[in-house]
Each structure stands twice: as structure tokens, then as C-alpha cells.
Amino acid sequence: MKFKSIVRTPLIMSAALLPALALADNRIEEIVVNADFRPQDLMDLPASLSVVTSDTINARNARHFDEILNAAPNVNFAAGASRGRFIQLRGIGERSQFVDPVNPSVGVMVDDIDFSGIGNAGTLFDINQVEILRGPQGTRFGNNALAGLVYLTANNPTEAFEGALEASVANYDTWSTGVVVSGPVSPNLLGRFAVQQYQSDGFIDNEFLNRDDTNARDELTVRGKLRWLAADNLSFDLSLFYADLDNGYDTFSLDRNRNTLSDEPGNDRQESTAVSLGTTWESAAGFTLEASLVYQESDLEYGYDEDWAFVGIHPWEYQSVDNYVRDRDQLSVDLRLLSQEGSELFNGSTHWVVGLYFENQEEQLERSYTYGDVPLFESNSEMQTLALYGELDSQLAENLTLKVGLRVEQFDHEYRDNIGISAEPDDDMWGGQISLEYQLNDNSMIYGLVSRGYKAGSVNGDALGKALLRAWPPTLVDFLTQHLEFDTETLLNFELGYKGSYFDERLQTRLSLFRMDRSDMQLKAWIVDGVQFAGYIDNVDQGENYGLELESIWQVSDALQLFANIGWLETELEDDFFVNDVDLGLVNKKGREQAHAPNYQFNVGGQLEFAQNFYARLEVEAKDEFYYSNSHESKSDSFELVNLTLGYRGEHFDLILWSRNLLDKDYGVRGFRFGNDPRDFYATHTYEQLGEPRVFGVTGKYRF
User: Fold this and answer.
1) Structural domain count, the chain
2) Which residues contact 232 (CB under 8 A, 6 or more apart)?
3) Over the stretch 410-427, which tens digit does the pLDDT of each residue have?
4) Separation CA 309–CA 264 (nearest Å)
5) How many whole angstroms separate alpha carbon 630 and alpha carbon 648?
6) I need a surface site. Which of 8, 592, 615, 688 has the fewest CB within 10 A?
7) Among 154, 136, 153, which Cα is nearest to 145's?
């Protein structure tokens, strides 16, 4: 499908329905973004971001953010696990993590609790909205938001008592139950409690074990919130979060389908406990003090049957299981002052923010690998961040606003492992943004944005450890010793945008054009010694990413709403990047597109209200082909998926019949290229982890 036809389809639909627009009298609901320093209307922010609301989450019956990411332009994800927890924004982002500590390019936050790199915790029960911020978020979020951020906001306690009971059943023996209770606990104390249990057998048939649940999902989510209104100008917020995910991981098939032969299926487990305490004090001097203390600990286990088969299929009875157990503890403190009326600068024209941030993260890893005489591997990684940040928001003229933000961050990292490898990378980094916004009229504006992001370097302990343990040639050991540490990556983003509302706010359009220049790109490279290999991160001087995002929503009439979200992306590796290609040998990938960066994406559809309280929602989402890796030439296929929802919305009871991937299309979400099947003498193939097949079910919710 060509990009021109992708754009043309929603435009033709819109033009055909233009006469009906005059009949509409419902305005599009305002969406408030929470990820900025101050809550702000989506249409007023001078930046490119998407907001997936609870309406879309419920219509798709989405249980994890990987089931709604395709609704936003220029967003991709990689699985290689039970969930698609590795995210790419505008073509930038990690695709996996194994031994070495990783600083993510795309952050994941749940109510200001940092789950970057461990996104299995991104479950969606009682989530109000998911905000996807594209481009560097250096001022607000720093090191973990080089390419952007996914920010999940859970529902807050309500002043009036309310609650809900929810149950769902679907194919693949899938079911879930949930309960929410919210309201006043005492005159000045509000509370909210939500819990959901979700289970599914998954989409894999293990023919060797004669089981259909080796890729099962068993996910428990618990959320609790308390808000104490201590005084008219003082409040405290306590958030508690618990997630227990005990999922299987058995997805790669020697037959390149959903039928596996593993004799020891893998797992993808995460148990996370987090607590966040925040306070807001509005001073009589005209400023607001916000303070937060966040602690989270996560126990993670990830493992897989590395040979994807059973003992005896290989001539020499090769068998291996690779398993990773991680314990992660993280503490952060954030203190900030925000101006209010009376404390602005320059005769009241300039609002300001100034803040101090500290974070300490510790991670212990135990890796057990069963092939050969590889001993248990243990490592300890501790990272500390201290940052000072500030922002000025100046009204230069009646229609002209300038925003300037800056963050300076000191990063220290200590790494130790039981092989004897140690490293202490550190860096002083900075990022921020300058934006200029011009209000064309009451309903439209244009903006220009320059932003800078950064991602700290880290260590390649795994590759050097393999070289030492396996007595590789001294030249390779020396090379990996020199590459034990890699440098910070930076990203400079240039963006022009337009946001406008028409026809009494019944049509909204957001358009952004961007160009991003990557410096010291952190890319995965490989060292090969015979049949042995080791991956390491190397810095590539320059990369280029540019494109556009177009998002539009149209309330055509009281009964009909249309939407179209379109992304176009071009990427390039601009400098030398030599890899050991499985087919071509040592190859320079200079000039090639970057991995997991499809040229186009779109999500178009509409929702029709009919009869009394009934509605139907149809969505078509599509994605162009993309390279699975920077190290080989294998690509995914392009695909189009159809999602359909039929629903009833009553005063107290909702009923939804839903389907995702209605036409049951196969599509890849992770891919590798090598030989692994003895039945064809280890011929080289592209092996893919397939995305979700057709799923359908019914969900009922009773609200009280």
C-alpha cells in the first residue's frame, strides 16, 4: 500500500461527509495532558504527542499498553518476551535486554513511578489515559527520555462515592475480573482502590509437550490512591501499586509459525511493588511547592529454551536454557517550585519552574546458562542521578509565547561482576528545549521547537566476559577491552507544528514536521569467533530521522465521529557501521534505514451511535515493513489490522462485544536471522515472533 493512498482514504471519507458537519452540535471533549509540569490542554502544547483515552482502551478491551500503541503515529514496539515492552518512537528505542544494564531511549512512567525498561508493568486496568510524547523530553524527564516517553495516568479518587465491577471472557481461554471503589473515606480524605486479575492461555501450541498454555499470561494488578486535603492550600497524595505477572514465554518456532517444539518453555515474570508520596503546598507568597518521594522494587525473571526444541533433535543432543533473574530497587526524590499569580517574572509576563531531582537505582543480576560449562554469572549495577532543571514560559506579545527549558544532570554508574570485570562510567549531561508558539486565532496556532535529549552510556561486560571465559584470541579480547564502555548518545530535534480547531471545536487537527539528528548512536554490533559470537554496544557518529505526524478527529454529527492518525518516517545510518551479517559477512551498513522504523503507519476509523445507547466502532491500523535489526537484512511484512467493537452503554451497565485483528492477519513483532533447525542442516532463515492473532470476546461492566 502506497503512502499517498493511505493519506487519500481518510481525506476522501472526510470530504464526503462535509455536508453532515453542519448538523453536529457536540464539541470534541477537551483532553488534559498530565506529563508536563502543569496540566495543559492537548491543543495548547507546542509539541507532538498522542493521547489514548479510556474510551479507546475500553473499546479494544486492551489489558496492556502494547495493545494500544498502534493507535499513535510513528510508534513501534518489539516483543521478544510475553509483552511488547520495548518501545521505539520515531525509529529510536531498544529492542531487547539480556545481560548488560541498559539506559532506555523511551521512558515508561505510571503516575510518576518509573518503569522504564521493565514495561510489563504497563497494565491498563483503571487507567484514565496513555500519553505518548514523541521527541526528547530532556527538561522534564532527562536521561530515560532521549526519544520520548509513554506516560500512564491512573484514575484519581473522586469526591462522590462510586465503583464498578467488570468481567470479560474471550477466546484462547481468556478471562478477567476487576473491581474499583472510589470516594470519601472521611471529610478531608479521598480514596480509590482498583484490582484486576487477567488470565489467558496465549496463542501458542507446543506440539512436543502437547500443551496450548506454554505462552500463557497470568497478570494481577492492584492500585490504591489516597488524597488528604489537609488545608485549603495543602494536600498529600499517596499512591500504591502492585503488579504480579507470571507469564510464559514460548514464541519462536523452528517451523516459523505458532507451533513450537520446546521441551523447556521459557517465562517472563515481573513482581513490582511501588509507593509514591507527593505533596502540594500553595504558598501565600504566590508560588507552589511540589515534592514527591517514590520507591519501587521489582523482581524479574526472564528465560527461554534457546534451542527452541527438544533433546535428540540435534545430532549431538545440543540443549540449552538461558535464564535471567533481576532484582531492581529504585528511589527518587523530586522537589520543584512553580510560579503562580503574583510571582511571575518580568512584570507578570513569565511563569517559571525550578526543580531538583535525585535518583538511585540498584540492579542485581543472576544469569544461568545451561550449555557447556558456563558458570553462574552475577553482576551488580548501581546508577545515581542528580539533576537541576528549570523552565521559563514567557508571553512575549498577545499572540506570541516563548518557552525555554534546561536540565543539567550528573550521572554516575558503578558496575561489578563475578568474572572480575568492573567499570565506572560517568558523565555530565544536559538537555532541554526552546519553543516559540504563535496563536493565529482563538482556535489555532503554529509552533517551532528545538529540543535536545540524552541517554547515558553504559558497559559491555557480557561480551568481554565471554571472550575471557572462552579464551578468545588476544586481538579480540583487546578490542572488547577497549569497548568495555560506550559513550552518551545525544539527540537534537527540530519540529514545526500546527494545531487547530474548526466548526465550533467539532474538528481538530494536529500536524508536526520533524527532523532529528542523532550523535554517538548506541547500536548493537557483534564479534564472531567461529561458531561463537558476542554482542556489544558501539557508538556510531551520526544518524538521521525525519518525517511527519498528522492526527485529526471529526465530530461529524451527534451520532458519528471519525478519526485519522498518520505517521511517515525516514531514517538513515549516516556513518560507518560494520557488522557481521549472517548472509554477507562483514558489511558496512552506512546509508541503510534504522531498525524497527517503518516508513508509514496509520490508524483510521470511526464510531457510530445508533438506536438508544448502542454504538459501533471500526478501526483500521497499518504499518509498513521494517528491518528487524541493524545487523541483518530481514524485514517484517507490512500489515493492516481491523478492530471492531459493538457496545451498549446504559445508566449503570455497559456491555461490549469486541475483536482485535478481526481478519486474523499474521504480522511480526520481533525477528532474527540465523540457522537453528537441524532438519534442514541449519539453513539460514528469518525467524519471527508473531503478533496477536484474532482475539474476540465480551466484556460487561456494572457501575454503581
Assistant:
1) 1
2) none
3) 999 999 999 999 999 999
4) 8
5) 47
6) 8
7) 136
Phi first, then psi: give them for residue 673, nearest 5 degrees.
Answer: -135, 115
Q: Are 460 and 480 in contact (CB under 8 A)?
A: yes
Helices and strands: H and E segment counts in the chain: 5, 38
User: pLDDT value at position 14?
Assistant: 42
Pairing of strands 532-555, 560-573: antiparallel
| DSSP-derived secondary structure letter, 20 | H
Contact status, residue 390 vs residue 403, Cβ threshold 8 Å: no
Whole-angstrom distance, CA of residue 353 vs CA of residue 339: 7
660-683 mean pLDDT: 94
Q: Kindly state the helix (H) or strand (E) to which residue 12 belongs, with its residue range.
A: helix 3-16
CA distances from 453 to 143, 164, 495, 623 (A): 8, 41, 14, 27
561 vs 11, 24, 415, 464, CA distance in Å? 14, 10, 53, 56
CB atoms within 10 A of CB 493: 26
Measured N-to-C along each axis, helices 474-482 and 461-469 cross at an angle, to the nearest 10 degrees, of 160
Closest CA to 136 of 389, 499, 430: 430
Residue 438's H or E segment, with its range, is: strand 426-441
Instruction: Quickly tell me which residue has 545525544 as its cell.
Output: 490
Structural domain span for residue 30:
3-602+609-703
Cell of 177: 475480573
pTM: 0.94
Burial 339-369 (b: 16+ CB within 10 A, else e): beeebbeeeeebbbbebebebebbbebebeb
- CATH number, domain containing residue 644: 2.40.170.20
Positive or negative CA dihedral for 73, 79, 83, 85?
A: negative
Give phi and psi for 192, each to the nearest 5. -150, 140
| Grid cell locating 621 | 491500523
- CA atoms 342, 344, 349, 351: torsion sign: negative
Given a contact cutoff of 8 angstroms between Cβ atoms, the answer to whether 545 and 92 are in contact is yes
Task: Give the Å distances, CA to CA, from 357 to 73, 292, 298.
Answer: 31, 10, 21
Question: Residue 52 has which C-alpha cell?
Answer: 489514548
CA-wise closest residue to 537 among 574, 577, 573 = 577
Closest Cα to residue 144, out of 136, 153, 152?
136
Amino acid at 83: R
Do strands 49-53 and 127-134 pair parallel, antiparallel, or not at all (unpaired)? antiparallel
